[in-house]
């Protein structure tokens, strides 16, 4: 386990310009204005933010540059934007508007070369590959695309390794089995996946209480933990979470 400070990352799923949240990728409900939430999290001490337009790929829309403009003006911490990034021009627009990194998911599955191209054009540190995977009945983790709608027949570990080799600077892995359940992260798989990679791994799916964050950093050995519901509905205020993690001797930025 590395000694870098662990990062707490609120995730804002965006649909039609609003922040939304679901359970196991369905049952979507409204969670507020994304710019207001972003400012709140920045003020509370979040280390980074992730914005994902959850309908961008499915509805073949491009992310709104205006949202990125507004967020960049409202906050002082790094943020990643994803959803519908399928070519260099998409990434260029978002990074130029103020995003610090772009997240690619479905486009990487349909055209893996996009990761090589983005890394060459902008540098690996700007490229996050998001992977949504589900533990199937055969005991293997299968990768899905289009917001968890379409199974791809790809296996999680080999896919993450390929993305790293193509130039991804970070992997954001969401366990679809754990997403929105608030029962804890997939720590065993997280640890195994992280140890198979040399780039940082962001854990996503399952945060429900402070102990889950402590577990994903210690047991799961994740570099960062991403969550949505517990932050949006103020179940776990970020300052409270950080004090708790510090009390557990986890290296965290206060």
Q: How does this model look, in words?
A:
35% of the residues lie in helices and 27% in strands. The protein is α/β, with parallel strands linked by helices. It has one domain (7-247): TIM Barrel (Alpha-Beta Barrel). Helix 3 links the parallel strand 5 (79-82) and strand 6. The protein starts with 6 loop residues before the first strand and ends in a 7-residue tail after the last helix. The mean pLDDT is 91.
* Terminus-to-terminus distance: 20 Å
Instruction: Report the count of strand segments.
Output: 12
CATH architecture annotation name: Alpha-Beta Barrel
> What percentage of the residues does DSSP assign to strands (E)?
25-35%
Number of separate structural domains: 1
Major sheet attributes: 8 strands, parallel, barrel
Per CATH, the class reads Alpha Beta
- Poorly predicted runs are none
Q: Let me know the CATH homologous superfamily.
A: Aldolase class I
Which strands sit side by side, in order, in the main sheet? Answer: 1-4-5-6-7-10-11-12
Class derived from helix and strand content: alpha/beta
Radius of gyration: 16 Å
């Amino acid at each position: 386990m590395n000694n870098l400070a662990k990062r707490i990352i609120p995730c804002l799923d965006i649909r039609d310009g609003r922040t939304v949240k679901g359970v196991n990728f369905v049952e979507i409900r409204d969670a507020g204005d994304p710019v207001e939430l972003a400012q709140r999290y920045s003020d509370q001490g979040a280390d980074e933010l992730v914005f994902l337009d959850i309908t961008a790929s499915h509805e073949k829309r491009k992310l709104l540059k205006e949202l990125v403009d507004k967020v960049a003006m409202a906050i002082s911490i790094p943020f990643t934007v994803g959803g519908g990034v399928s070519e260099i021009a998409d990434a260029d627009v978002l990074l130029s508007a103020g995003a610090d990194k772009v997240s690619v998911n479905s486009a990487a599955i349909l055209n893996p070369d996009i990761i090589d191209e983005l890394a060459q054009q902008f540098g690996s540190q700007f490229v996050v590959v998001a992977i949504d995977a589900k533990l199937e009945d055969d005991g293997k983790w299968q990768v899905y695309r289009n917001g968890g709608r379409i199974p791809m027949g790809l296996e999680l570990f080999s896919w993450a390794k390929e993305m790293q080799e193509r130039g991804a600077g970070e992997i954001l892995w969401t366990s679809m089995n754990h997403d929105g359940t608030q029962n804890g992260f997939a720590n065993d798989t997280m640890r195994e996946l992280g140890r198979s990679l040399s780039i940082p791994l962001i854990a996503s799916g399952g945060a429900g209480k402070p102990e889950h964050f402590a577990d994903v950093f210690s047991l799961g050995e994740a570099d960062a933990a991403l969550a949505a519901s517990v932050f949006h509905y103020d179940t776990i205020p970020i300052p409270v979470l950080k004090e708790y993690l510090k009390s557990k001797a986890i290296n965290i930025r206060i």
